[in-house]
Amino acid sequence: MILRARSVGLILLVWLALVALLLSVAFGAANLPISTVLDVVLGGGEPTERTIVLELRMPRAVLGLVSGGSLAVSGAVFQALLRNPLAEPYVLGISGGAAVGAVAVIVLGVATGLVPVGALLGALVAIGLVLRIATQTGRGLDTRVLLLAGVIASAFFQAIILVLLTLADVESFRSAVFWMMGSLASATWTDATMLGLYVAPSIVVLLALARPLNLLATGEETAQHLGLNVQRTKLVAFLVASLLVAASVAVCGVIGFIGLVIPHAIRMIWGVDHRFLLPASFIGGGAFLLLADTGARTVAAPAELPIGVITALIGVPIFVVLLRRRIA
Amino acid sequence: MSPVFAAAALHYRYPGSQAAAVNDVTLKIESGSFTALIGPNGSGKSTLLKLLVGALRPESGTASYQGRDSVSWDRRELARAVGVVPQLEEMLFPFTVRELVGMGRYPHLGSWQNEREQDRAAIDRALQRCDVSSLADRTLQMLSGGERQRVRIARALAQEPTVLVLDEPTAALDVGHEMALFELLAELRRHDGATILAATHNVNLAARYASSMVLLSEGSAVVSGTPDEVLQRDRIEEVYQWPVLVTRHPGPGPDTGAPQIVTLAGDGTTPT
Q1: Cis ω on the peptide bond leading into residue A302 (within 30° of 0)?
Q2: Is B126 within 8 Å of B102 (Cβ atoms)?
Q3: Best mutation site among A226, A234, A236, A273 for testing chain B: the one with the most B CBs within 10 Å?
Q4: What is the ipTM of this complex?
Q5: What is the spatial distance between Cα B119 and Cα B114, in angstroms, rounded to a whole number?
Q6: Of A223, A205, A224, nearest in space to A214 by CA
Q7: Which of A154-163, B83-92, B235-244 is predicted with the least confidence, judged by mean pLDDT?
Q8: Digit-coded pLDDT (tens) for B59-79
Q9: In sequence order, what are the beta bridge partners of A113?
Q10: Which of B221, B245, B222 shows the shortest CA–CA distance to B233?
Q11: For position A2, what pLDDT does the model report?
């Protein structure tokens, strides 16, 4: 089947991402024809159209693309690293730590602009914590302990979040809950550029780890016999993937499902080789988040649905179809 | 010429364990030899192999490859010369056979380097030698236990090693594939000059194909030497705790006359 060829797959995914980008910029409170969008991109269009496309929607779309891609790639990396197909970007408590930071900033009434900073700090604390728990002197990083440490840390952070929410007034309670549901609504070019500058080198590092991750999936012992420096690979993969998640969470909040489903969907269609899986997950994850965000903005307009609702509502049926086809 | 592997007063105990898994082992694996490591379950065969290839750090004593401490080797450099087929392997994702065997090229390739013509040739050769070329596009989950084992050996061969270390390579294989594997190992040694080191429970096949044997018991090397020197009735009975006879392979074939162990039936009481 020609669709299964990986070169064809990559082209398809890039097209999907471009279409998602166009739709995302065209649809919203005021729908613009695709031709107008293309006009603006090429330097034409009315001033209002230019503002809507270039200042409001484009940064949001770019942010969605980069963030969705980061989540999908880190999900794929965590699944291989933790040897667990149920692993996803938030399984190690990074989202929990970020949420504690963000909610604390909101509830304590510090400047709203500091919410991403609080989230990033919280995520970094979480990363340091689980790394500390799972690292033994002389024996390195134990990924089985890492998974458990993540689950435990998540539970701990949840408890702190509940305490903070209990103490919050109605207005901060509402913003805190909305933050935790994830959103691209506040996107600016600064957000998009900063995340992009941060994500690009991280993705390059992870792409360089594609073959090592293949080896790691055969087990640590075999990987070592095939010439892999297992400890260094695990540590670098964990840190880079975690920092990707931390950055994405800090800017967009917690957007579930992408990191779990996109890598699995790619594997089911095009196989499990990380040399294809990682770039394909990035493009696919980005396109998927963009489509979900476009849906979230338009189906109940002018209200905006939480983006996680859409990722789950679209993602689950697609995933079920793929699963059923795989079994058959 | 220095031996391929050497152990000197080698000692290893697993963390939290009382008894030593490998206890004061001293041995040499000569270049171009086919050495079979035999001994009962839990006698330390796997642990000794892991120590020799630097996957475990000795508690005391030394394990070396080419005269240098095995743990101090750069893993990539070591993997270009030493192929290891471990006993157990849990595959996380359904890789295809070709992808898996291709992983054997990892130590020969840079991070961003694609497989070259010579890499693809090495993979094809390895697939052919292990008789799994026809399975190249299948995923591991679709294969039988024996086919999986041959794929793993093919992956080690794709490394183009001069030394092949195998831990119970024929445990999952039927008689025909078991013979084919030992023939392959013998041919790798004869034709390519490879050094073979294999832990095995099949004492009789080891005695027919190996040039030397090491008998382990409770972590110690009881005896090493030619199959004739190692397969002595009283020694085998003591180590395996079972009555045996030592006979000769009746032939025909190049290994006619090789020592063979025949186990005797129990008489319904616990053997001494």
Answers
A1: yes
A2: no
A3: A226
A4: 0.91
A5: 9
A6: A223
A7: B83-92
A8: 999 999 999 999 999 999 999
A9: none
A10: B245
A11: 56
Distance CA A313, CA A307 (A): 10
- Contact assignment for A218 to B103 by CB distance below 8 Å: yes
A236 contact B CB<8A: no
Q: pTM score, two decimals?
A: 0.90
- Percent of all residues in chain A with a pLDDT value above 90, rounded to a whole number: 45
- For residue B44, pLDDT beyond 80: yes
Residue count of chain B: 272
Please check whether residue A278 touches B, CB under 8 A.
Answer: no
Which residues 62-101 in chain A show a CB within 8 A of chain B?
Answer: 80, 83, 85
Structure tokens at A292: 């979900």
Residue bearing tokens 């996109």: A262
Residues of B in contact with A222 (CB under 8 A): 84, 86, 89
Q: Write the single-letter amino acid at A87.
A: A
Q: What CA–CA distance (Å, rounded) separates B214 from B45? A: 10
Omega before B252 cis (within 30°)? yes
Residue A277 · residue A285 · CB < 8 Å: no
More confident residue, A4 or A175: A175
A173 CB burial (10 A radius; 0-12, 13-18, 19+): middle
Residues 295 through 314 of chain A touching chain B, CB cutoff 8 Å: none
CA angle A296, A302, A303 (to 5 degrees): 55
For residue A255 the two structure tokens come to 């957007």
Place of tokens 């993540």: A150
- How many residues are given for chain A? 328
H helices of A84-229, in order, are 94-107, 115-134, 143-167, 170-181, 189-208, 210-216, 220-225
Q: DSSP 3-state assignment of B34?
A: strand
Task: Please name the amino acid found at residue B272.
Answer: T
Task: Give the pair of three-digit tokens for residue A227.
Answer: 């010439």
CB contact under 8 A, B92 and A80: yes
